[in-house]
Amino acid sequence: MPGYSHQAARLQRHLEIAPFIDELLEASGGTGDMDLWQMVVEEASRLSEGVVAPIDSQLDQAGLTMENGRVRTIPAHGHAWQAYVQAGWLTADVPADQGGQGLPLAVLSACEELMNRASPAFMMLPTAVRCATALLHDAADPAVYQAWLPHLTAGSWTATICISEPDAGSDVGRIRTSAALGADGIWRVTGEKCWISYGSHDLAERIGHCILARTSPAPGVRGLSLFLVPDRAATGEPNGVVLRRIEEKMGLHGSPTCAIGFEDAHATLLGKEGAGLQHMFRMMSAMRLSCGPQGTGVASGSFHVALDYARERRQGGDPVTPPVAIAEHPDIQRLLLSMAGRIEAARGLNIAAAAALDVAGLHADQAVRDDQLALAQWLLPIVKDGAARLAFEISSDAMQVLGGAGYTREWPIERHLRDSRVFSIYEGTSGIQAIDLLERRLKREKGRGLRIFLDLARREPGGGQAFDAELQHILAMLERTSGMLAQCDGRTSAAAATPFLRLATIAAHAWIAARILRLAGDDATGRSMKAAASAFMSDARHLADLEAARASGPDTVLDDFPRLYCEG
């Protein structure tokens, strides 16, 4: 596997040129130090390459076992987990006044990309712990938060998010798991949950499940409340949390995906009764944001394998002379440039969205905070879905570069392909993200985040950049298409959601590419980033036109759907 230093250098440059970085540095106070942030990225690179990456193939090959009602991991997993914890990564974004480092999400996004390149299966655990810690900070009683915080940051306790049930996935209004308050003042939860990452494991002494359960017969989401349900009582006794099975999956073999039963499990109410989904959104949003660096991390790993392979693999050319490296073939060059451009744009957008959320939480001006939050909420479905699809598509392209070799387990590409296929499924499928962008962010919120984005992106070009016209065309196409869809409803609107999300993704990535071309610099790192950004922009306008046409086209093609169910 190629080294991580080049990737780290790009991430450091993205931090330097990220939108809102000046506002973030100012608002971060004592922790707002670019030199410190750059050093943190370097440390993430070293840990990723030296500790986490070496175990990824072991996790994939060994898989997981279930012993005495608990998931058993391999020793190498435990050693890597302890190294990660001891390096202080679980305290990275905990506020400084609570014993943490208080690092912004933008810095964590850069670090998580490196670590997810090393092993997305490994990173599923610390990502959930970090997001749950933030959730408890916001929703839990201070005493509960203070009781859990030192254990979560020490890695001796971990946490999960429990939403899905066998008959209620993204349709959370159909959740049937229930919670009842007993005469003794204790809440008890009963029901079945599935698709729980690290729902059981032996890497920690205790696991806290952040679970949605129904506390009233009110229909839909109104009767749902949020609870913290530990798998064991404080005394170490079981708490009615039962591991039903470990799912057999296509990829992420080192990450246990569990079906769990709750049998009168003692629980602690988090936040207000009946407001469970509102409280859970904090954790869901944080985990969706983390899908960005997860996707670009895996994509970057596949790309670097393909790039190095293309420079070493020799084939073709004049048969009377030695064969040339396949990197000399124009078709391979075009493919690698396209891969690099898509990764660089998505990488920059991850950090931009994280920085917007940072400023939304720290800036002194309420109006600025509100605008940054609206922008971040607009970008979040784009970040999540764009990077999720990117990981699988880049891994597929990398396999194409390697040819038959990439299809074998001798190379990591086939593992990346298997691991990444689920990225666009969990934390909200591509279709769910598309509906969220169109129905909530565009229609319900009157396109506030979109307007802020368009204003920012239109001010971006300057100095006669080669692709200014392309960017302006793409932004105009997005604005025109959104105006048309804002007036649609029913089947027409639903049919347009996914192409509209793809169009919005191209526009957001084009904005980042324009910034790279203007700001990345003229050293080796900057020139490489600009080459990638130029490759992206050379295709972006045509791709935007296609998605705009699909979003704006008639929905009459759906009339043919019943014919798929022909008989005889």
From TrEMBL:
<feature type="domain" description="Acyl-CoA dehydrogenase/oxidase N-terminal">
    <location>
        <begin position="38"/>
        <end position="155"/>
    </location>
</feature>
<feature type="domain" description="Acyl-CoA oxidase/dehydrogenase middle">
    <location>
        <begin position="161"/>
        <end position="264"/>
    </location>
</feature>
<protein>
    <recommendedName>
        <fullName>Acyl-CoA dehydrogenase</fullName>
    </recommendedName>
</protein>
<feature type="domain" description="Acyl-CoA dehydrogenase/oxidase C-terminal">
    <location>
        <begin position="275"/>
        <end position="440"/>
    </location>
</feature>
<dbReference type="InterPro" id="IPR036250">
    <property type="entry name" value="AcylCo_DH-like_C"/>
</dbReference>
<dbReference type="InterPro" id="IPR037069">
    <property type="entry name" value="AcylCoA_DH/ox_N_sf"/>
</dbReference>
<dbReference type="InterPro" id="IPR046373">
    <property type="entry name" value="Acyl-CoA_Oxase/DH_mid-dom_sf"/>
</dbReference>
<dbReference type="InterPro" id="IPR009075">
    <property type="entry name" value="AcylCo_DH/oxidase_C"/>
</dbReference>
<keyword id="KW-0285">Flavoprotein</keyword>
<dbReference type="InterPro" id="IPR006089">
    <property type="entry name" value="Acyl-CoA_DH_CS"/>
</dbReference>
<dbReference type="InterPro" id="IPR006091">
    <property type="entry name" value="Acyl-CoA_Oxase/DH_mid-dom"/>
</dbReference>
<dbReference type="GO" id="GO:0003995">
    <property type="term" value="F:acyl-CoA dehydrogenase activity"/>
</dbReference>
<dbReference type="GO" id="GO:0050660">
    <property type="term" value="F:flavin adenine dinucleotide binding"/>
</dbReference>
<dbReference type="Pfam" id="PF00441">
    <property type="entry name" value="Acyl-CoA_dh_1"/>
</dbReference>
<dbReference type="InterPro" id="IPR009100">
    <property type="entry name" value="AcylCoA_DH/oxidase_NM_dom_sf"/>
</dbReference>
<keyword id="KW-0560">Oxidoreductase</keyword>
<dbReference type="InterPro" id="IPR013786">
    <property type="entry name" value="AcylCoA_DH/ox_N"/>
</dbReference>
<keyword id="KW-0274">FAD</keyword>
<dbReference type="InterPro" id="IPR052166">
    <property type="entry name" value="Diverse_Acyl-CoA_DH"/>
</dbReference>
<comment type="similarity">
    <text>Belongs to the acyl-CoA dehydrogenase family.</text>
</comment>
<dbReference type="Pfam" id="PF02771">
    <property type="entry name" value="Acyl-CoA_dh_N"/>
</dbReference>
<dbReference type="Pfam" id="PF02770">
    <property type="entry name" value="Acyl-CoA_dh_M"/>
</dbReference>
